[in-house]
Amino acid sequence: MSLFQDFDLESSTNCASDSVEIFDGPTAQTQSIGTYCGTGLPSVRTSKSGQLYIVFKSNSFVEGRGFQAYFQKNASCGGQLTDSSGTITSPGYPNGYSEDLTCAWSLEGTTNGNITLRLTDLSLEITDNCLYDFLDVYDGTCICSPRILHLCNNTSNVTVTTQGNMYILFKSDESVASRGFSATYEITETTNDCPEWTYGLGCSLCSCIRDSSASCDAQTES
């Protein structure tokens, strides 16, 4: 994955004068995945072959500042999260994620525990029905579980809570990319050790009543 931090080249039609061209492979005979000039920062580029070949060209006329970029090998993307709290971000955040990504995070709590996800920043490619780049959150262990969030718009300060497990899926297509997302999560435990006259947090009715079923029924009706 390559990410440009500074970019200032002579602008020209089809980048015929000064340019930076990136190839997906070890030589310029492999597939070109982008040619850039001007002053706009190029988008993040990811190699499917595991190698990148970069060619910089300039003519003898207008000069610019040049460019600065860095590369990242095997960017972390998804996984099983075991800490009780932490931060989840898309690869490259906040400088932009790459194209054609599929990242999945799995969070596991206890049966009566809660998992809270707080989305602090989200900037993805905006499309109708979130067809291209999107962030999904599922109440369970996989995409077969009920989906409780499906986002692709620019938003922040979204909070969602599940009980037991949470599955987070981030996908991007092969074209437009944006800043990405950042979120924090927290796994908390609930307790069933409650007084006889109350229900426990996260308990089904009567499960925390240490009395007869008659008392439970009376409590339920009041």
Automatic annotation (TrEMBL):
Which InterPro entries does the record associate with it? CUB_dom, Sperma_CUB_dom_sf
List the keywords (alphabetical): Disulfide bond, Repeat
Q: Which residues form the CUB domain?
A: 1-74, 77-188
> Which Pfam family, any one of them, does this sequence belong to?
CUB
Its domain of life reads: Eukaryota
Query: What is this protein identified as?
Result: CUB domain-containing protein
Q: Which organism is it from?
A: Biomphalaria glabrata (Bloodfluke planorb)
* Gene name of the record: 106051209
